[in-house]
Design brief:
globular; 3-stranded antiparallel beta sheet; 3 strands; alpha+beta
Length: about 70
């Protein structure tokens, strides 16, 4: 994660399958970051206030990876 700004090309493995793509920090775009936070929080929990969601993500770094 720390090198995404220097080299956005990433590779990762999920369930034994390898993927490649380009990563970027979501926090650079506040609107995109908020949409992602809400979608992720509501996937695992329920609707919540902005304060709860912001607190839940307070120590997180959001990244997006677009696979090729």
């Amino acid at each position: 994660m720390k090198n995404i700004k220097q080299n956005c090309e990433v590779s990762f493995e999920i369930g034994g399958e390898n993927f490649t793509g380009k990563g970027h920090y979501i926090n650079e775009d506040p609107d995109e970051a908020w949409r992602c936070k809400v979608a992720l929080y509501e996937k695992y929990y329920e609707k919540a206030t902005k304060e709860i969601i912001d607190d839940w993500f307070s120590l997180s770094t959001l990244i997006a990876i677009e696979t090729s």
